[in-house]
Amino acid sequence: MSRVLVPCHVKGSVALQVGDVRTSQGRPGVLVIDVTFPSVAPFELQEITFKNYYTAFLSIRVRQYTSAHTPAKWVTCLRDYCLMPDPHSEEGAQEYVSLFKHQSPSMTFPKWLSHPVPCEQPALLREGLPDPSRVSSEVQQMWALTEMIRASHTSARIGRFDVDGCYDLNLLSYT
Amino acid sequence: MLQEESDLSLIIAQIVQKLKGSNLYSQLERQAWASLQRPEIKLESLKEDIKEFFKISGWEKKLQNAVYSELSVFPLPSHPAAPPEHLKEPLVYMRKAQGSWEKRILKSLNSMCTELSIPLARKRPVGEQKELLNKWNEMGTDEPDLSLFRPVYAPKDFLEVLINLRNPNYENGDSLSFRTHLGLIQVPLKVKDIPELKECFVELGLNIGQLGIDDSTQVPPELFENEHVRIGQKVLSEQDSAAAQQYIRQGSPTALRAELWALILNISSQPEDVLYYEQLKTNVIQHDLLVDSLIYKDVKLTASNDDYYFVFEDYLYQVLLCFSRDTSVLSHFAFNSASPPKSYIRGKLGLEEYAVFYPPNGVIPFHGFSMYVAPLCFLYHEPSKLYQIFREMYVRFFFRLHSISSHPSGIVSLCLLFETLLQTYLPQLFYHLREIGAQPLRISFKWMVRAFSGYLATDQLLLLWDRILGYNSLEILAVLAAAVFAFRAVNLMEVTSLAAAEAVLADLSTLKVMPLLQIFLFATVT
User: Which residues of A are less than 8 Å from B344 in CB distance?
Assistant: First the structure.
């Protein structure tokens, strides 16, 4: 099943604040980021990836159209998902995060799909360790991938630090 | 959970890829081929029979140890979208600070180069090569003129950089408020408090036997020591790295320590390793580096002046000079916030095919660096083994003590942990020292940067390093530093200047580290 990036427009963040933004001294703790999908055919969202910057908790709300006649309504997909276990310290502050469809059952978009992507049945998740033969087949896939990557690199000469026997250096470089 | 499963697959793939290039892999392959001769290996159950053979012959254990070693050293794979810098250090402002610090070091080295008109590297003429080869075992007798060389930096320079670290997103104001940190470190890293440390260092508890406490002359050896030694011998005969790491949390018997450390670090001296060391030695003979003079100077200034370590002077050169030429060390920069300095072959500035790292291992030694090696000389006398052990200790632990990162075992976290422990559990002492202009970190920093080498008596230092290996963490250094202050609190409360405070804490050679740690963690009223 191949996945593609969905083109989207991420608007700047807006503070949720009571009162006048200009005169109020307080710093709002809640910011809202709007993400719109311009002119894209209906799709099934699998994963949202982003880099955090000091956001402690994340909620995601989606405006869903249920049918052509009823007005769209807002659905909460994720509420107060914790990105920083201790908001006053650096843990998780600048981490890369992925949110998957399975984490939110209602994270689907319009009911009909124009790309008939086969919907993956959630695997019977065993408690404890994953199924070894499944892991080993995934490992083989990754192995093949890493071999491809390795083959495309020029081979480094192991252990040698000179260039053709020469290690005559001028000065250290700052770049 | 699906996420955990794919994380596990990724970790497995990563470890497999790493081990595939190793000696162990080729040995296992050879063993598997050779085992086909054996009668118990049947074609219809080939895979299972070979696996069984590996289990019985001890090769599976070797593989387990190698995997365990990789897990201990390599950080967990990060998010696929994360660039390589993120693995080195996730916080952008720390990466920038490390970059600036490195630039200062490079400038300092470059100016030393131009001032003294000494090249960064040169090929030795044949006569000089022969001479060096002849006196390889007694380089300490050499008295080169090192007066013009100065160490690139000392720990106190590095401390100033750490004190000025700021998170641009953290508002704590310039004026003193309840949000300002009272210590010198102003970045909000997460550090453990005593309840969390007690959980983490549970084997150091009051009701658990320790070497360094329960092996003292007053305690009959039947109570703990004999049994502990017996278990240690069993662990060694099983050759199990993970078991050794668990065992050593209670300390290592002196007679078993060298083997236990080698087992935990997964070092087994194979012929290839000895050959590799000899190759490094050849590199030292052939090329002279400016960094060599820095190493000489450091050894002469520190280890040679130390009552415990001066006898090992020659070993230190044999290890550190080779270390500088070892390109295999470069791989640790994948998870080190630091980066190896770059240079170009003379006349080829800017041409990437003539770009090289300098020194070849990418590590520029600072004042006191040789003290990382010195204590190991008590344990290992064969140069290539001593070398391997030091190299592994460096890429697992010591590099974190002199690079700027947010890692829990990084020096910044250790400093903050120390200051927080002191403030929280000895607030009167902390306040008093601050008032007299003796910020505690200014005194303890040098202890932590050197992992207490050169400050404690060697037997005590080795007991401390046992626990570093056992817990795979340097946090114990910060706890010990706080425990030392707690121990000398009464005297410290009476001093009225930084100099006097330094004097109270100048001599740590009589301290017993395990009782101090135990009391601080488990017997102090919190």
Answer: 169-170, 173
Q: What's the whole-model pTM score? A: 0.89
pLDDT of residue B520: 96
Q: What's the average model confidence in pLDDT over B116-126? A: 92
pLDDT digits (tens, 9 = 90+) for B124-164: 999 999 999 999 999 988 878 888 888 889 999 999 999 99
**CA-CA distances (angstroms) from residue B173 to A87, B191, B415, B435?**
18, 22, 21, 21
Q: Which residue do the tokens 């499963």 mark? A: B5
Helix locations, B436-511, DSSP H: 440-449, 458-471, 475-487, 489-494, 498-504
Residue, of B13 and B488, whose pLDDT is higher = B488
Report whether pLDDT(A98) > 50: yes
ipTM summary value:
0.85
Which residues of chain B from 298 to 357 reach within 8 Å of chain A, CB to CB? 325, 327-328, 341-347, 349, 353-357
- Res A136: pLDDT: 66
- Report angle CA B415, B416, B420 to the nearest 5 degrees: 120
Our CA-based measurement puts residue A113 at a distance from the nearest CA of chain B, in whole angstroms, of 24
Residue B81 CB coordination number (10 Å): 12
pLDDT at A87 over 70: yes
Task: Give the residue-averaged pLDDT of A67-87.
Answer: 87
Tokens 């996730």 correspond to what residue? B90
Q: Answer whether B380's CB lies under 8 Å from B389's CB.
A: yes
B9–A90: do the CB atoms touch at under 8 Å?
A: no
Q: Is residue B122 pLDDT above 80, yes or no? A: yes
Cβ contacts of B410 within 8 Å, gap of 6 or more: B337, B400, B403, B404
Residue B288, beta-bridge partner list: B122
User: What count of Cα atoms within 13 Å lies in the side-chain half-sphere of residue B485?
Assistant: 33
8 Å CB contact of B343 and A173: yes
Q: Which residues are CB-neighbours of B174 under 8 A, at least 6 positions away?
A: none
Q: What is the pLDDT of residue A21?
A: 60
What value does the CA radius of gyration of chain B take, rounded to a whole number of Å? 24
Chain B residues 398-427 with a CB less than 8 Å from chain A: 406
Q: CA of A131: which chain B residue's CA is closest?
A: B5
- Option in B90, B190, B279 nearest A159 (CB): B279
B520 in Cβ contact with B204 (< 8 Å): no
HEC per residue, B44-69? HHHHHHHHHHHHHHCHHHHHHHHHHH
Residue found by looking up tokens 């608007």 in the block? A11
Single-letter code of the amino acid located at B148: L
- Three-state secondary structure call for residue B217: coil
Q: Which residues contact A10 (CB under 8 A, 6 or more apart)?
A: A33, A34, A35
Report the alpha-carbon distance of residue B524 to residue B103 in Å, rounded: 44
